[in-house]
């Protein structure tokens, strides 16, 4: 039980009230400086963290004293007075500790400082560790050090930020008052650490490739364009690092990976942010079957490290990562959804368009059978796949960088991992034939000339690398943000990106 009361709900201050609060706090800054106290000092030296202090003393008896002196620091998130007693609560990295402050126990400087403190200030305190009569772990300080004067008030520490968008726009406030935000980003950190650990243990080498590309490539998406003044040329923010990473395989590196920031000039939604994080891996001599095994291992490692379990609940529905992931072809799944056992890539295009119309699936005249089949699958199947499923063998038409299937010329050796109705990974046996790759690039270039903004262009630098000779290669791309969404059980990608892209403030 805490000696500090539960904060009452408060309305956000009006603009005029906010101005008054800021003015009053600026006046306190002036008072502090007049008294010789620097409100924004250079450094401070705590002897422990609040979290470690709580771990060290998890169950002190009420009213007990330890005799141990510590120096702690944090932000003041609550304060109250009770006669000659003052109570402050310091929060550091999500952990709280109470300062139990009998005025007579404070030195003269601390007593003067106490009257100028506000919720939101950063404070250091040195004193004995004890438990109050109510059993609250506390520090009884003899000295206090102001570490940073807050000019703006915090939102209610109990009710948090009322404006959802303010959580994303002012993440510093969200992290201060919202324990769940801190939980989500702790999970994200563990996921990234786990992915690296699994790959490092498998002898992959972590590399870095350019974020500014002379031509857009590596995926079918619309790029962001910028201009390099010194070279007087346009450059493109990375859509994907794929082609650079595969050039490393051509150069003799056997296993590489990159956890990268990529950018796509597309719309925003609960699942899409223009700037996002991907993991890409490439392994010489592997095919897409081996990459499926790697993908399962990576997802399980991330869940185990972040949550300690493979049995999850996502948005109120159970999902298990423990068993072997299902593997089913895109054609097989689309046949099941349409009830058409005769469905194939050899059906006349007009018949496939008619089937799309029956299911209210949009089509365009330039689309061939592969694209039409993909549209049917995405409209009828993908969102229904809740448990982990490798959807394999995507049409050649929509897979310009993947190797043609060894047994079926209509499809490629490509898979996507679908979990809770959305894509979490995309991978394939890589195309290593430079002449086949050139033909695919040229087909993409024709599509771009016909108006497809997301189609690729011919990448001569990559083709030159391929012409040196490439070994069989398995490649993988994992959407890190979506994996964190799954493991943190959140439905909006903005909840897992510290500073997501937002509309400009009015």
Describe the structure.
There is one protein chain. By secondary structure, the chain is α+β, with helices and mostly antiparallel strands. The protein has 2 domains: 15-154, OB fold (Dihydrolipoamide Acetyltransferase, E2P) (Beta Barrel); 177-325 and 388-495, BirA Bifunctional Protein, domain 2. The chain has 14 helices and 18 strands. It has helices at 15-34, 50-56, 108-114, 164-169, 171-177, 179-201, 242-250, 288-307, 330-338, 349-358, 369-380, 434-449, 460-467, 480-488; strands spanning 65-82, 85-92, 95-102, 122-131, 137-148, 205-206, 212-213, 225-228, 233-237, 255-263, 275-284, 311-314, 317-320, 326-329, 389-392, 414-419, 422-429, 473-479. The strands form 4 sheets. The protein has an 8-stranded mixed β-sheet, with helices on both faces. A 5-stranded mixed β-barrel has the order 1-2-3-5-4. Helix 5 crosses helix 6 (179-201), helix 6 (179-201) packs across helix 8 (288-307) and helix 10 packs parallel to helix 11 (369-380). The longest helix has 23 residues, at 179-201. The chain is elongated and about 90 Å long. The two termini are 43 Å apart.
Mean pLDDT comes to: 93
Second rung of CATH, namely the architecture of the largest domain: 2-Layer Sandwich
Largest sheet data:
8 strands, mixed
The SS-based structural class is alpha+beta
- What percentage of amino acids are in beta strands? 15-25%
CATH level 1 name of the largest domain: Alpha Beta
| CATH H-tier superfamily of the largest domain | Bira Bifunctional Protein, Domain 2
What is the helical fraction, as a range of percent? 25-40%
Could you tell me the radius of gyration in angstroms?
29 Å
Tally of separate domains = 2
Task: Please count the helical segments.
Answer: 14
Overall body shape: elongated
Order of neighbouring strands in the sheet with most strands: 6-10-11-18-17-16-15-14
